């Protein structure tokens, strides 16, 4: 499109220069100049977003070849851990070997309020379909540089994660096609259930054939005005396809970006090629400017099946987690919540016994 616009502008400019001066031609010139400005506007707006936003690459939060900002020195903006290997063309988070973990994490906390992240990666290996694993995760969390069972990072995290899950652990559920991309917001007391592929805590997602494909995978994660959007390009067409769009996502500032991966009994190569963060400038009302977010949360959640009970469960899970931090009764509360979740899944429309039972589980 930009090439066509440039050619049209050149034709218009050449035509203007060849016209002899006259009052009639002056009008024609004015009209042609308007066309030039219109085409220039189209060209300049081609890679910008609506809602009066513009973007700026933030190099201190970005990684690209030859990965000079990644290392163990104090001047590096990024550092790596586990089995991560730095190569000329990519960063291999995990090789196609069993029981490996790797990650790269930003050293600099992010205080950008509205941002867009574009991640380029490739997942490939020798295993046949459904005999590979486990995937990778992109993070913006309070914690950093910690090993764990959630795609190479710790569970009970505080912040945002976008998972690219390549192996179905819960073989009893068939409503999802893997690989599957999903997102989760944690407040430090909500667990990611690896055995059930995070179904009870994710905000939604989409199937994405990202393994052993010809082209690199591109993932776009946008957080703008408390709205989380995830899009993907898996066909090399330079066209974004929607994956999920969730309003009411509230993330504090000062968290760290990272990307991690893990293999278990099954394995794959998980290669990071680039990680680019853009700051978005957005018009805000005075009320929006004064908003201060101290704990990650989501206003509501709708699962892919439209189950309204999940809205109640997700809201209560955050509320319960808040009390567990205050009253130090995480274990008993989780037992209660598991029973409560089962009751809601069985069809109960309201939790009549919630207010009477919960106080007995907690103490000051």
Automatic annotation (TrEMBL):
Protein name, as recorded: VIP36-like protein
Alphabetic keyword roster: Disulfide bond, Glycoprotein, Golgi apparatus, Lectin, Membrane, Metal-binding, Signal, Transmembrane, Transmembrane helix
Span of domain L-type lectin-like: 55-280
A GO cellular-component term linked to this record: endoplasmic reticulum membrane
Recorded GO MF terms: D-mannose binding; metal ion binding
Lineage, broadest ranks: Eukaryota, Metazoa, Chordata, Craniata, Vertebrata
Entry membrane topology: Single-pass type I membrane protein; Single-pass membrane protein
Annotated signal sequence range: 1-45
GO biological process, any: endoplasmic reticulum to Golgi vesicle-mediated transport
Lipid metabolism keyword on record: no
Pfam families registered for this protein in UniProt: Lectin_leg-like (PF03388)
Protein location: Endomembrane system; Golgi apparatus membrane
């Amino acid at each position: 499109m930009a090439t066509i616009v440039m050619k049209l502008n050149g034709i218009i400019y050449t035509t203007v220069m060849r016209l002899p001066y006259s009052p009639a031609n002056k009008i024609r010139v004015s009209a042609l100049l308007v066309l030039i400005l219109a085409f220039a506007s189209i060209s300049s707006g081609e890679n910008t977003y609506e809602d009066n936003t513009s973007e700026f690459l933030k190099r201190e939060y970005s990684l690209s070849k030859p990965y000079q900002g990644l290392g163990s020195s104090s001047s590096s903006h990024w550092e790596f851990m586990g089995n991560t290997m730095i190569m000329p063309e990519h960063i291999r988070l995990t090789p196609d070997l069993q029981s490996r973990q790797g990650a790269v994490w930003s050293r600099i906390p992010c205080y950008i309020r509205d941002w867009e992240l574009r991640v380029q990666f490739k997942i490939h290996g020798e295993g046949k379909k459904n005999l590979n694993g486990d995937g990778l995760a992109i993070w913006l969390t309070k914690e950093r540089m910690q090993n764990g069972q959630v795609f190479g990072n710790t569970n009970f995290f505080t912040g945002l994660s976008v998972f690219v899950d390549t192996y179905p652990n819960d073989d009893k559920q068939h409503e999802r096609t893997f690989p599957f991309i999903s997102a989760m917001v944690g407040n430090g007391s909500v667990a990611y259930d690896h055995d059930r592929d995070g179904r009870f805590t994710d905000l939604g997602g989409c199937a994405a054939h990202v393994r052993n494909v010809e082209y690199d995978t591109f993932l776009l994660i946008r957080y703008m005005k408390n709205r989380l959007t995830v899009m993907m390009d898996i066909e090399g067409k330079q066209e974004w396809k929607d994956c999920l769009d969730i309003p009411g996502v509230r993330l504090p500032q000062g968290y760290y970006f990272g990307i991690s991966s893990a293999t278990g009994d099954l394995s794959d190569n998980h290669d990071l090629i680039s990680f680019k963060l853009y700051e978005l400038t957005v018009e805000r009302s005075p009320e929006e400017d004064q908003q201060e977010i101290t704990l990650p949360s989501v206003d509501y959640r709708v699962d892919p099946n439209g189950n309204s009970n999940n809205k109640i469960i997700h809201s209560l899970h955050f509320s319960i987690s808040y009390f567990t931090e205050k009253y130090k009764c995480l274990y008993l509360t989780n037992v209660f919540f598991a029973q409560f979740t089962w009751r809601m899944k069985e069809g109960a429309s309201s939790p009549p016994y919630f207010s009477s039972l919960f106080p007995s589980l907690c103490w000051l």
